[in-house]
Amino acid sequence: MVDVKLPDGNVKEYEDGVRVGDVTKDISEGLFRSALGAVVNGEVKGYAEPINEDCDFRVVKFDDEEGKEIFWHTSSHLMAAAIKEIWPDAKFAIGPAINDGFYYDVDLEHRFVPEDLEKIEAKMKEIAKKDLKIERKEISREDALSYFKKEGQDYKVELIEDLPKDELITIYDMGDGVFVDLCRGPHLLSTKAIKAIKLKSIAGAYWRGDSDRKMLQRIYGISFEKKKQLDEYIQLQEEAKRRDHRKIGKEMNLFSFHEEAPGFPFFKENGMILRHELLNWWTKVLEKNGYGEIKTPLIMNEELWHRSGHWDHYKENMYFTKIDGENYAIKPMNCPGSVLVYGEEPHSYRDLPIRLAEYGQVHRHELSGALHGLFRVRTFTQDDAHVYCLPSQVKDEVFKMIDLADLLYSTFGFKYKIELSTRPDDFMGKIEEWNFAEKALEDALIERGIEYQINPKDGAFYGPKIDFHLEDAAKRTWQCGTIQLDFQLPQNFDLTYVDENGEKQRPVMLHRALLGSIERFIGSITEQFAGRFPLWINPKQVVIIPVSDKYSDFADDLCKKIEKEGFRVEVDHRSEGVGYKIRQAQLMRTNYMLVVGEKEEESGKLTVRNRDGEETKDVSFEEFIEKLNEEKDSKSMKSLF
Q: Which residue range or ranges hold the Aminoacyl-transfer RNA synthetases class-II family profile domain (predicted)?
């Protein structure tokens, strides 16, 4: 028998091997019809999967991330079934759910073209309407090999042969043989729920990511329970294209990339203004909150990375070099440098907490196919901080970090969700320390009454973490900030403090990065505002446009007066029409345009045009500056004109 604990705290007893769907149906017939599966002890399961141990049980729907995983995984099988029906000689590799839908890798002599996607979509809808039941079957290794060899599915055969000898093998049969796949699940009960489908693109993918293996064809898609959801998705995708930071970055002259340095961003003058304004503000915030700033070297010797644990757990993402015949590594993380600074001198319990902040540039090897503008690069600057504290201070320090995160994200209008990421399989240290660390972070979230989700096995190798996931204006989610609790580095580097009894003790180390990657954060706010940055941070605040050369001197004098008040301003002296200059200023997302001519020169009053094209006439210089200061100092996200 197994005990199943429900979210309301009630525990029900079932036969060992009871299916997820049977438990859900027992709870509520209505819930059974509307839900897609469940999370069982942190693992996502479809309705056909068995429960073989006591567990916590939570039903999931499409609105839940886990529900989407089940829905989209089933959709990948549905797509494969459609491809098989149209091209019977297709060979299938893998077809997982991903963050934004699903894909399947296919080996087929026919080369897919965009017109094929419509054909596959139509076939998928036709199959889905048949309400095909999806049956989970446990199968012996020998039977699985025999079946997939007979079907000519070479990639499935290879996957089976690479499984451990004692591995449980399952297949999922869609519609009594319509499509049978080697799969762990999870899946829907039937195809009927899949009502709206959009196949998005075709790409190439090496089998198992190995460039020495065959290039397969990958088809990406997404699906929904209702057509309305698909329509909303398409609309958001169009909005995302409009906000693409790579396009806007080029238009606004913020940053660039060059083939001579793939994945390494070049920040240009306007981008550096934006960057400096962001970091100058954030540095003042950190100073007010008790942080001191340090800077540690970009390159340190190999021995350090063995001691820190990065060599064993992160080596494949690091870059290496030699100096004086010795091995060195370019740092992928800033924490070992901070640890060395802490360890330079003795500390008393009265000194703690010690908060050390660093804008540290790191380098991490990313595959070329994963690079994506500022969001995925090979070098970035982390707004790191490391707090060394007593165990009794952990909760208060986490509270302060959460408050800092809320200040940061609300300043830029971001909504966010919080995840608690727990011990990964590849971890360092003792289970007892991990249990303590996970409980400390969870207790802090519970005491604050903060909603959060558990993200199992996604902690850092040295400790669990609280992750902040930002939702932007296009309703996409980005993992940004993180708070991590670490017992391992203080042990590895023998960090100590002297307690009230004169005894040496080990401090607790908290890692904290809230901007996260400064490059990614700049990419995120570029898309959040579609380049229409708030006045205080915008590289282009005011442009003055004289209607003719006759008023150039007046424009220059006005420019000097505004500049003296501390604002970024320039005069557009180009021999172009006024309309053209206004359009160019709007393309640069300039906050305000001042078109000056005879009336402005004689009256001393200004006509202020904002980037939406709205005009405010007869504004005195003093009123203009007063409003600009108010907008800048309040960090308003809206124009005050």
A: 271-534
